[in-house]
Amino acid sequence: MKKTFFYIASAMIITGTVFTSCQSNVKKVENAKENVQDAKQELKEAQRELSSEYPEYRTKAELTIDDNKQRIAELREKLNKPGKATFDEMRKKRIDELEKRNNDLRIKLYGYENERYTDWDAFKSEINTDVESIGTALKDLGKENSK
Questions:
Q1: Rounded CA Rg of the chain
Q2: Residue 65, class by beta-carbon neighbours within 10 Å (0-12 exposed, 13-18 middle, 19+ buried)?
């Protein structure tokens, strides 16, 4: 009798588990579909926000990058003026390095429009930091020239 009761109880537990797990899979699929719909909606909203914010930000960043480019040209002009103290090789290399970083920054700025896989706020922060560091380095390099 105990064996029969044990077998019946085991069979009921297994049957209950099977039916319960089937229902949860259906619920899991429904939840997954809802999550996908929510994610799609959030993506569309983020793209709309980005499409309105990116062009304005790009224009401002371009102006700063152009200012850096102009400052680099001025430093190169000072380098080539006769009668002025000439730059040493370290300063020449530093100008070349800053010019390359400035050009890479412009490429990165335009590359975001095509790739958009990074976080917008992190991207903006990184660009701002890079632009400021290049600008500061150019100003410091210009101050060293006047000495």
A1: 31
A2: buried
Alpha-carbon span 61 to 51, nearest angstrom = 16
Q: Which residues 6+ apart lie within 8 Å of 22 measured at CB?
A: none
The residue among 147, 129, 140 whose CA lies nearest residue 71 is 140
Burial of 131 (C-beta count, 10 Å sphere; 0-12/13-18/19+): buried
Which SS3 state, helix, strand or coil, does residue 128 take? Answer: helix
Structure tokens at 41: 């909606």
Which tens digit of pLDDT belongs to each residue from 25-78?
667 777 777 887 887 777 777 666 666 777 888 889 899 999 999 998 888 887
